Amino acid sequence: MNFRTKTIALLMAAAVTASCSGDGGRKGSEPLVIDNSLTEEEIAAGILTPEVLWKMGRLGESTLSPDGKTVLYSVTWYNMTENRGVTNLFTVPSAGGEATQLTDNGGSDFAPAWSADGKTIYFLSDRSGDNQLWAMNADGSKMRQLSHIEGGLEGFGVAPTGDRFFYVQSVHAADTQGKDIYPDMDKSGVLIYSDLMARHWNYWDRGSYRHIFVGDLTAKEAKTGTDIMAGEAWDAPMAPYFDMSEIVWNNAGTQIAYTSKKLTGTEYATTTDSDIYVYDVTTGQTININKAGTPNDPRLRIAPAFPGYDKYPVFSPDDRYIAFQSMRRGGNEADKTRLFVWDSTNGSFRDLTEAFDYNTSNVVWSSNEEIMFIAPMNGTHQICTVTLAEEPQVKVCTKGDHDITRFSYEQGVCVAEITTQRQAAELFRVNGSQLIQLTFVNKDIYDHITMGEVQKRWIQTTDGKQMLTWVILPPNFDPNKKYPTLLYCEGGPQSVISQMWSYRWNFQLMAAQGYVIVAPNRRGTVSFGQEWTDQISGDYSGQNIQDYLVAIDEVSKEPWVDKDHRGCVGASYGGYSVYYLAGVHEGRFKAFISHCGIYDFDSMFGSTEELFFVNHEYGGPYWDKTNATAQRSYANSPHKLAQNWDTPIMIITGLKDYRIPYTQSLEAFTAARLQGIPARLVAFEEEGHQVFQPQNSMVWNREFFGWLDKYLK
User: Fold this and answer.
1) 349 phi/psi in degrees, rounded to 5
2) Cis peptide, bond prior to residue 237, ω within 30 of zero
3) Cα gap 181→228, rounded to integer Å
4) CB burial class (10 A; 0-12, 13-18, 19+) of residue 431?
5) What is the β-pairing status of strands 679-684 and 649-654?
6) Three-state secondary-structure class, residue 689
7) Angle 527-202-363 (CA atoms, 0-180°, nearest 5)?
């Protein structure tokens, strides 16, 4: 289930109803009022609270100007009373200096992009009602709406030549609703399916799919385009993230490369086989580079040559090559993400990271012969480079305990978005291993808030390996006191506890309420080599559970850990971990919290949607009695340990969660209450696997800390 941390702009952009004309002159509703100043009480307290967390501005997309001198970026703020937010655009010199705000609160302005000459800024805005393409001069003047396309846009990309653009819209391509199949029953609300998958993440398949359109563009108008996927019943970019980074123009403005999984039904639900497609604007023809070419590497000469995820194409400066991320094993969403290059002159492929045991992301060509990318390494994320040499060698360019989550590179200048467990995302200029901070979005908050110390520990596991474990201490920590302590269980399961900053599961927020946090990178987490990641598949109840227990036991040797007041919390796979640990913890914990966790493997297999996940992670379906791995998985399902539960448990879910269906949470709540165990069910009607809406998040935090405080303080 490998839930990605990448921010989807459309999820973060709030709907602010306003309309604009001419040079951005507003009419209609008033701009959303944002007041993120701290109260006197918050300043006096000096700690991070849920209220303070939601006053923080959230850095969004960033990109360097073509000359490398200016960084364009977005920031989102929220109004808790209105339960919505607004996104504005800014620039800051890449050499350092004052930031300039380009847009106001009259609408959410996001997905910023530069024109090839750096004179124009393009962006999406909902100022006129729905999301349309807008433009302004580089200094923010002469703001104007370019598109008036019915239904609005979900994403866009302007060709380097400036005369065309692509955009993404949902189109109807299949009949799944009763009123489509039976037009005379137009008030029917029935959904009808003949194959998988009927629903995905947080929505039912109603026959609409994201398609790419190409239209003409002038300085004054972005015209309605042509659907380059007409009649196709699949998405580009792919569900469920719909990441616009999966679509890119070539530098000549003549081709578009994009990612899609052009499969349907059961095959779609049981495989990860996505491919890279190249559409030629002149001829209107599309080729699948992963299936059309003849791999020159003998190890790829299998059928199919690329059976796993192939994503995120990027053209080289001369358009000869396309770099992309590729997984070797089909059906395994957590396989090593390799960096491949396709040569358009002969259709050959090369794996540039064969000898590099880490994943690749955020691929950027720094020249025709060198590629930059981000790799997760030992609980951090660093920038690396590799060349097209005959024997390519990866060079790690940055170091330190931080997460570089995204970067852009122009004219020898590199600017990166960086987080730590003590600071939300900010922009930094990267000069070799030197990092120079450019933005200070939340300086006024940091100036009045004390963050807790973050300790980096390597703990020996039961099988003799070293496991990175982060320990976060409360602000103003006193080693002579005893503190209630939380074991944090990571989701994924193939994700990583790195130097991340989260607005949902924030370690500093937990620590500020007086808790010590123990966050182990147990088996299955990423950034410690593929063997460490792979071990968890088919062994959910095994070594990683021992990793959790050894981590909490080892840190509990500290005199400042209150062994009588320890809790265990987690979401998704972490929620599964909570359920399992509740049956085997032998009195270690006095409270549990599980958010959207897996409780019953049998019912999970039959009610989830991405079946490639459970097929790979469990080993197969529950009815395959000849499959030893699968039968071991189902035999160790958490629900079979429910008779051992003896500890208060809070269970949180979203009623639109179909990834781990909310019924898993209902089953667990029922099991707890029928056994007389104190339990509390918190179900969010309009949320899916995560909680995004401001007021829902505030309620989540109040329930979360209320439960912990009741049983651990």
Assistant:
1) -125, 150
2) yes
3) 26
4) exposed
5) parallel
6) coil
7) 35
Cα–Cα distances in angstroms (integers) from residue 482 to residues 459, 555, 557, in the given order? 22, 13, 12
Residue 191's DSSP bridge partners are: 177
> Which one of the listed residues 572, 594, 637, 665 is annotated catalytic?
572
State yes or no: pLDDT of 153 exceeds 70. yes
What is the DSSP secondary structure assignment for residue 527, as one 8-state letter? Answer: S
For the whole prediction, is pTM greater than 0.85?
A: yes
| Residue 75 DSSP code | E
Residue 59 structure tokens: 């850095």
- Annotated catalytic, 616? no
Q: Report pLDDT for 305.
A: 81
Q: Is 572 a catalytic residue?
A: yes
For residues 459 and 13, what is the distance between their CA atoms, to the nearest angstrom? Answer: 41
Q: What is the pLDDT of residues 655-686, one digit of tens each?
A: 999 999 999 999 999 999 999 999 999 999 99
Task: State the catalytic residue, choosing from 211, 381, 585, 689.
Answer: 689
343 is catalytic: no
At 355, the amino acid letter reads: A
pLDDT tens per residue, range 211-252? 999 999 999 999 999 999 999 999 999 999 999 999 999 999
Helix, strand, or coil (residue 68): coil
Catalytic residue among 205, 577, 657, 697: 657
Q: Give the number of other Cβ atoms within 10 Å of residue 660's Cβ.
A: 27
pLDDT, average across residues 35-53? 96
Cβ neighbours for 29, distance < 8 A, ≥ 6 positions apart:
16, 17, 18
DSSP letters of 178-228?
HHHH-GGGTT---B--SSS-SEETTEE--SEEEEEEEEEB-SS-B---EET
- Specify the DSSP class assigned to residue 643: G
Average pLDDT of the segment spanning 295-318 = 76
For 451, half-sphere exposure in the C-beta direction (CA atoms, 13 angstrom radius) is 17
Residue at 421: amino acid letter: Q
pLDDT value of position 299: 47
Beta-carbon contacts of residue 597 (< 8 Å; ≥ 6 apart): 570, 571, 572, 573, 574, 575, 576, 577, 578, 579, 651, 660, 664, 665, 668
The position carrying tokens 């001069």 is 137
d(Cα 536, Cα 493) in Å, to the nearest integer? Answer: 8
Q: In the Cβ-directed half-sphere of 611, how many Cα atoms lie within 13 Å? A: 20
pLDDT tens-digit profile of 608-632? 999 999 999 999 999 999 999 999 9
Q: How far apart are CA 8 and CA 19, in angstroms?
A: 24
3-state secondary structure of 498: coil
* Helix or strand holding residue 421 (H, E): none
Chain centroid to CA 59: how far? 15
**What is the Cα–Cα distance from 304 to 325, expressed in whole angstroms?**
17
- Residue 450: per-residue pLDDT: 98
